[in-house]
Amino acid sequence: MKLEYVFSYNASVVDMQHVGGPFGKRRVARCGAGTVSGPRLNGEVLEGAHDWVLDGPDGWGRIDVRAHLRSHDGCVIYAQYLGILEYNEQYQAAIRNGGETAFEDIYLRSTPRFETDDPRYIWLTQSVFVGRGRILPGYAVCWEIYRVT
Questions:
Q1: Which of 45, 64, 66, 97 has its Cα between 20 and 30 A from that of 131?
Q2: How far apart are CA 121 and CA 111, in angstroms?
């Protein structure tokens, strides 16, 4: 197997709600609009994406993201991904100070899945993808998305 780089995207966190429950502490992050750029997909992240992060007692967060992307040529694509985030020292410093991390600084990984019926982008529904993330200044996130070949 190989990984083919497909696109990157950035989005900011607009606000955060905290919810407790029987499975632990959950943070619900509402995201703002962002950009999508890469060799196979370009466009924007539409405002209103959410990330339901379940904070585990083991110092890791389990992410559950739902978002809509709009390609440069008008196709709306639904994206959903589950993943995992390590709350290590670099992550905590970036969040506390409004700073950033490199991809190698934190373990922020995901398994995106896409939905569309547009024939130009149907390949998104017929492939397996993985992503790696990092924190950007001002409490935003950047993801690189790769297709497993």
A1: 97
A2: 18
